[in-house]
Amino acid sequence: MKTTLPFLATAFALYTMYVSAQSKADVTTFVNPMIGTDGMGHTFPGACAPFGIVQLSPETDTIPHNINGKYQGNVYAYCAGYQYHDPTIVGFSHTHLSGTGHSDLGDVMLMPQTGRLILTPGTASRPDEGYRSRYSHNTEKASVGYYEVTLADNNVRVQLTATPRVGVHKYTFPKGQDSRLILDLLHGIYNYDGKVLWSSIRVENDTLLTGYRITNGWARANYTYFAISFSKPILSYGYRDKKRPKYLGFWRKFQLYQDFPEMAGQNIVAYFNFDNSRSQDLTVKVALSAVSTEGAQKNLATEVGSKSFEEVYAATRASWQRELSIISCQGTDDQKAMLYTSLYHTMINPSVYMDVDRKYRGLDGNIHEATDFDNYTVFSLWDTYRAEHPLLNLLKTDRNTNMVKSMLAHWRQSVHHVLPVWSLMGNEGWCMTGYHAVTVLADAIVKGALIDKDEAFKAMVSTATWTRFPGLKEYMTLGYAPYDRDATAASNTLEYSFDDFTIYAAALKEGRTDISEPFARRALYYRNTFDKTLGFASPRYADGRFKADLDPYQTYNEGFIEGNSWNFSFHAPQDVYGLMSVMGGEEAFLQKLNRLFEMNLPPKYYKDNEDITADCLVGGYVHGNEPSHHIPYLYAWTSTPWLTQQRLRTIMNKMYRNHIRGLGGNDDCGQMSAWYIFTAMGFYPVCPGSDQYVLGVPYLPYMNVALPNGKHLTIKAPNVSDKNCYVQSLKLNGRPYTKLYLTHADLLNGCTLKYVMGSKPNKRRGQAIIDKPYSLTVLK
Amino acid sequence: MKTTLPFLATAFALYTMYVSAQSKADVTTFVNPMIGTDGMGHTFPGACAPFGIVQLSPETDTIPHNINGKYQGNVYAYCAGYQYHDPTIVGFSHTHLSGTGHSDLGDVMLMPQTGRLILTPGTASRPDEGYRSRYSHNTEKASVGYYEVTLADNNVRVQLTATPRVGVHKYTFPKGQDSRLILDLLHGIYNYDGKVLWSSIRVENDTLLTGYRITNGWARANYTYFAISFSKPILSYGYRDKKRPKYLGFWRKFQLYQDFPEMAGQNIVAYFNFDNSRSQDLTVKVALSAVSTEGAQKNLATEVGSKSFEEVYAATRASWQRELSIISCQGTDDQKAMLYTSLYHTMINPSVYMDVDRKYRGLDGNIHEATDFDNYTVFSLWDTYRAEHPLLNLLKTDRNTNMVKSMLAHWRQSVHHVLPVWSLMGNEGWCMTGYHAVTVLADAIVKGALIDKDEAFKAMVSTATWTRFPGLKEYMTLGYAPYDRDATAASNTLEYSFDDFTIYAAALKEGRTDISEPFARRALYYRNTFDKTLGFASPRYADGRFKADLDPYQTYNEGFIEGNSWNFSFHAPQDVYGLMSVMGGEEAFLQKLNRLFEMNLPPKYYKDNEDITADCLVGGYVHGNEPSHHIPYLYAWTSTPWLTQQRLRTIMNKMYRNHIRGLGGNDDCGQMSAWYIFTAMGFYPVCPGSDQYVLGVPYLPYMNVALPNGKHLTIKAPNVSDKNCYVQSLKLNGRPYTKLYLTHADLLNGCTLKYVMGSKPNKRRGQAIIDKPYSLTVLK
Hints:
- Chain A has 18 helices and 40 strands.
- With 780 residues, chain A is α+β, with helices and mostly antiparallel strands.
- Chain A has two domains: 294 residues, Beta-galactosidase, Chain A, domain 5, CATH 2.70.98.10; 446 residues, GH92 mannosidase fold, CATH 3.30.2080.
- In chain A, the strands form twelve sheets. Chain A has a nine-stranded antiparallel β-sheet.
- Chain A is globular.
């Protein structure tokens, strides 16, 4: 530990140099990347730069391996490769998904080694049989752009930092020991025998490697090229290839496995020995590219070059400070930790997916040049259309516009002419349902993004009419996806209908009546899957019948995806009054809403359920998964809007804690965190595609948010607390404000929201119909 | 057959339009692509353009498949995918090696089908179980740029033609039958389970496919992208994937195997149905690229576009006419067939390896742009340094210079900084021995090629000092590759030493004494592997001892590669007088030379031998493999130079016949054929790297060769015949010429060689030392 202080001193001096011009409070120190690393959060503790494609992070297990054709262990737990309570670290790899519920990546893993050469990872229960190591959390430090741990088994200190495209490792080996680095190209998250289609390493010279691997996983064909530079010359090296190519040809004439600079195969685990006698430090710079090793080398040279570890870290920390310091606030340290960590989590995925020379691998497998936009990947759209994209659209408008343009590029390159469903490393992952990219585009249009709107409408319409989407062909004729064609027909109908609303809304704004009219009709199709006898959304057969024995508490096999009917039935944010109607009127609606939050959900409905745990429940309301995220705000349309305020405070306190287990569910590429940021500010985009944000309640006494246009949002609720959680009155720019929503224009103009809070609800607020938020139809 | 005549008439009309300006005799009709398609020639009968990367040819078998871990059948016979006596055709694929002894490729195979859908090839003995078909040679037509066959089992007429980067198929289906095309991406030459690392097909629209496959074979990682256009819309399609990905992810939600436009996997065999009711013709244009599907589409648009099959064929035939009509001659039809077919075979490999936009996949895996040269691949250098490259250097100087530049690009991209050994599709295949690219570079320099000589010397020296070449490290200190380090140490020493000579010669010409001096020494190292007690080259141990029990008749396991000591002992063309010396003087040398051609080699030395058959023997002289190719010319240095004339006539008559079995050995990417062209002209580059061609004897009464510089070689031997096979006298440009060699300058100046031939040798010719060809040292 003795080198910690000089390192921190140097890095901090460099960092203050970078940020000195800004004279803002250093908010990076509040970020706690450990939040969510235990249990369901599926976040990773490692180092990354804002929106960078490199997430350099420790992995604690690589379960599952395919043993006798069966996957062993809990794949789901290892979406980000790290579970806090695991006893060992396997290595440090460069690509991770932040908070997802499905997994892939873990590319290009390094691990330092001393002593005996072992090229297999070993197991958590028998770490000595492999290169993995025990570790203590006492040696672990995680902050923006920085991760540190000391490996217990070999006493190697590991420090990690990253730029958008380069991971930088600093290994300090113990004196008197040899020093070796393992480069495991077989390792991966959600790994299985045969996942690596091909891999290659070239030892270009004694301090530079290039190489790549192609994997077939969630990303169907994922090309990861790399360039790796070392601060010390390689003394010797070699590799093992458990599954040697059946045909080796004339390569047999060489001693391929020792000091041969062209390694290739499907099971490559390589090692590199270094001299540890004069200096114990080894700095390793790993640049990635999806294009080529040439691209990786350009990324390496441009983003890192000859910079020291400390310089890279300081610059990355400064870039996080620039990104995060758009918000200043008052609150407890824990509240600040949660706020800034949430903001941090909204800026990991989507990730930039192009080289510094703007080349990127497109969905068509070709190399394109992003001449007029920045290309992004990792669009977890079923999650992120709700709050992550609206948040970025508000706070990082340029980035969100570039993401929209990336989705349009994906559409242009799609052989189906379909916008992304789950974009992953130049691949379509097809995970989850709906066509929510449509919503992101529509929301961008409605909120004034500078994109090619003609192309956007073409993309939206061709996507929303792509009849390979389950049940969509029948949806377009019957008005709902039939259960006999589609196992999640009920939720699909709800999702399609919402997405269709956003097309309508964007078309309406742009005067495209040719589009707005048909999609206005489709925006109401959600009603067709409501069983009015039950007052619940329910799967419906093509012949018109509803499922006979619907269990509205049950998440699976009831016609819904990752949600039960109790939660999904509220999924018509485009038409809350219409929804009330099909539920039997406002009273029935309100009763159901209250019951949702207050019921006692029997454990049988969530034990052994990936998507619901007790941690993420408020009554029967499931905050840990996305379909419910807008529900607490639906009180705004009712006669008890103040109940939103109550529910939100409960959720905020319960689901978001400055703790390793502090996230009640998967962060899902920032969606859970974006919900937090919005809700902390006191408003939420209940219905993307409209220009409204529904008011909730501020969580902190003071927040100031710098918008990209230079304007500021100031939110003051001086006496807010768990007790004083009810809005008594609100002034917007000094004038009393009675509406239950703000418009995008209100925010863009810059505004000050001044709340008077109290311990009892002001039940008179927000009762007038004129103060109610948008609904496609009005209450009948 | 009824459509044959109109087709030929149309194509011929188009063709004459293309060539009309040239008013030269149509020599394309003499080319017989069937020569060498039976037995050892390993040529293919299909269609290609000069130096094109596409060789669109039928395949008669795909042996071996890996059955229970063992390869079945005779891999060697199927290097070009076609054996004349096979009863069935499997399909028509786009890449083939011409005449090699090792194999790969057979990429992107199409096969027409009617009736029942079958997606496996079946076997030659049970063709009805697969998509393969019987065929009759009566329906087969092969000529430059054209191949035709009618498949007996489904009565589909198949016509093939090609541009450099595009194969064009025309299928005529029988009336009243359905029509289907199989696209087998699993098929390959030298195929085995696991060879296809990944493959992909995108149905871009109803007349266009794009896709690729990556294979791990002789080319370690071979990227073949394609774009395929159809003259009719696809009605329906699908694929089978015998080895489905273990992880299919969310693709499972689709009906992937039927009409789904994104197919991918490791075992893809796809089919496409077309309407056969209105027209029975289906034209298919298949463009390849090693860069991307974008590159393939550019190649398709630029080289073929909307041209008809007939237009493409006529243009390709015209381009062959331009290439081949540089030679005019008198002779029998069989002699002309052999001459033009040989010339044709010298212009298939090497092949152009870059897209029309000049992008190509380099040895480093990166995409490069060939800004100042044309990039070529398929360098079978152990073979082609001898005569193929010297021939191209003389007749197609620009192409050879571009090939040299391609080798330099390979060197720049080589992590070893080594010139190509066997360049194959952007890969190094490492097949065979020596570093003969050095010789090609040196020969180009000596003969005045416009290349960067400083870079060339760097490349030659770094290659000749790359100590991973077997035994080379010891060779550089001991003066020979030791047998205890290197199983083919004796031939390696001979080959290294010859290559070293060429470095010396080129350096001497360019005044680089820093290089010429050390390599002059190495040029004599061949002597160190001569066992003077035997008078034979013999493997030698590091301690100086020679192998005790050398069997100089035995090809294998005696320290030589693909040759016995009897043949290899003559492998010092750079220093024939020195060689005589180590063999015990001229008399001993001559005695050995005669014995070589006159011995009765016991069959045990060539039965079960891939590289020697009775077909390719003259006594113990093996013409079917390359190490001996210069030997008949070695008489020039002796007192019986006329014996060269005798031996050559024998070899020419025996080894080169206008017959399916007309080649006595593998054509080896044009080397056997280049030998034929040179020998027919009456001279041969015995020692590339010197500027001399050693005179043999003209084979035909008249030849005229147009050189690229506009000058002509005219070779007249009016009364030459099998009887009159001896040179009585020779006039060069009208003046008596007594030397036994010509220089490159003599040829470049243009010249007329007028021979008087007779039935008895003129034993006085060529006896003066001044008339003898080059030798590094003189006779002692």
